[in-house]
Design a protein that fits this description.
Chain lengths: 261, 175
């Protein structure tokens, strides 16, 4: 009898654990409600936040760098097609390897990121990823989730400087979730392909980051909210590219760009 | 030793008086009232079950069995519910998130996934518990045994196992 009792206890515990693991893997997590923030409002907020971010960093103004960024931006946006966002790219003096997008299409690139990229195409891969976050409205949804729509709107009417600075900090420091990162990766590879830049550059910049930081680094949350860089490198390498795909090099003197940082 | 030697025989429906059947049924039904009262504090129903068991177990083995089965079967549900209340309060008061993206185990799931998975398991466990308790109550009212998986055998073991009669203490003259 005792043996039978133990056997049934094991069955009960086993079933419980299996069901828990099973349900967890099915991911029944309810989607956070996506609250409609119009693109116009997002742009207005974006301008406020961009001003705040720019106050805290030194923007590098160099014709060589501006030309290079313009070329990459032009190529990527032509591939993206018609978009409601008016993109602005800023290169700021900061050694950290980072790039992030705030609301309304303002994208900031740290000089450390350019230093690390061995080729302009690698930077293009990072920027395509960030454009992906903007186009898929991840930035605005992340802020709504973290800060709440009321606070976001209150900034517009009052412009409380402490609040603006707080929101700007949240944009810079907080991470996207796994599915959003994956969507931005897919968007980047798709855009790069259309721009006739090899989508494999996504893998090559990830690998460079991995080599430098050995996998996961808190400072790199912009690219990896989760320590699954290997998986993302693999996905980028497996991205199907048409046989007739013929990449065209970006005509940028990358060494000159680096010299001007 | 055979089962007959180790355990008392189970009573047949015709041998069980209506009063005993109602008391046995009460063990399950009382849980529902206690469960409702104890919702914010999932420990109350367990205390009620314990009191019910201790006040009724001496009446008959049939009542003892059903009270024990009801008591045992709600221990895991109570622990699961308490876990959920604790986890939820922790999220609320420690500035956590119900949709946390924090990795639980690399490439397996996030803490949010595990939390929501747990909610579904707890809801399922409570539903199963309620259904089985209703069935148990109906069977008890009819004077029948009804064994839940694991808890049924455990309750049977403790209610029907023959206990060795302890010999009364005898005073002895000095040695």
């Amino acid at each position: 009898m005792i043996q039978k009792i133990y056997k049934e206890l094991l069955i009960v515990i086993g079933v419980f654990l299996l069901v828990w693991v099973g349900i967890t893997l099915l991911r029944p997590v309810p989607e956070a409600p996506e609250i409609a923030v119009s693109v116009e409002t997002e742009m207005e907020l974006g301008d406020l936040l961009a001003k705040e971010v720019l106050d805290n960093y030194t923007v590098i103004n160099s014709d060589t760098i501006n030309d290079a960024i313009y070329k990459i931006k032009h190529k990527l946006l032509s591939a993206v097609g018609p978009t409601v966002y008016d993109y602005s790219f800023y290169v700021v003096k900061e050694e950290q390897v980072n790039a992030f997008a705030t609301l309304g299409g303002h994208i900031f690139i740290f000089s450390g990121m350019i230093e690390m990229a061995a080729e302009p195409e690698e930077l293009a891969a990072v920027l395509a990823h960030e454009i992906g976050h903007v186009e898929e409205r991840h930035v605005v949804n992340k802020l709504v989730k973290e800060i709440g729509v009321t606070v976001l709107f209150s900034v517009l009417s009052g412009g409380d400087p402490v609040l603006v600075s707080e929101i700007a900090r949240a944009t810079v420091s907080s991470a996207f979730d796994r599915s959003q990162e994956s969507e931005a990766d897919q968007f980047a590879m798709n855009t790069l392909e259309k721009a006739r830049i090899s989508p494999r550059y996504v893998a090559s910049i990830f690998r460079r980051i991995k080599e430098k930081y050995g996998g996961y680094d808190e400072r790199l949350e912009f690219l990896m909210s989760h320590p699954n860089l290997n998986k993302r490198i693999k996905e980028s390498l497996e991205y199907p590219v048409d046989e007739s795909f013929n990449p065209i090099d970006l005509e940028i003197d990358w060494e000159a760009v680096k010299r001007n940082l | 030793m055979t089962n007959e030697e180790l355990y008392h025989p189970v009573e047949q429906p015709d041998d069980i008086p209506t009063r005993d059947r109602e008391d046995a049924m009460g063990a399950y039904l009382m849980m529902f009232a206690a469960l409702a009262a104890g919702l914010p504090l999932p420990i109350i129903n367990l205390i009620a079950a314990l009191i019910y068991y201790f006040t009724n177990r001496a009446k008959s083995r049939f009542i003892e069995f059903h009270s024990l089965q009801s008591l045992y079967s709600q221990i895991p549900t109570t622990i699961l519910n308490a876990g959920l209340v604790f986890w939820t309060l922790k999220i609320l008061f420690q500035d956590g998130s119900f949709l946390s993206d924090e990795s639980f185990a690399s490439d397996f799931a996030t803490v949010g996934d595990v939390y929501w998975g747990y909610i579904y398991v707890v809801v399922a466990a409570n539903l199963i518990y309620v259904i089985f308790s209703i069935v148990g109550a109906v069977y008890a009212r009819k004077g029948r045994m009804y064994y839940f998986i694991f808890f049924g055998k455990l309750a049977y073991h403790f209610a029907y196992k023959k206990r060795e009669e302890s010999k009364p203490f005898r005073n002895q003259p000095p040695a």
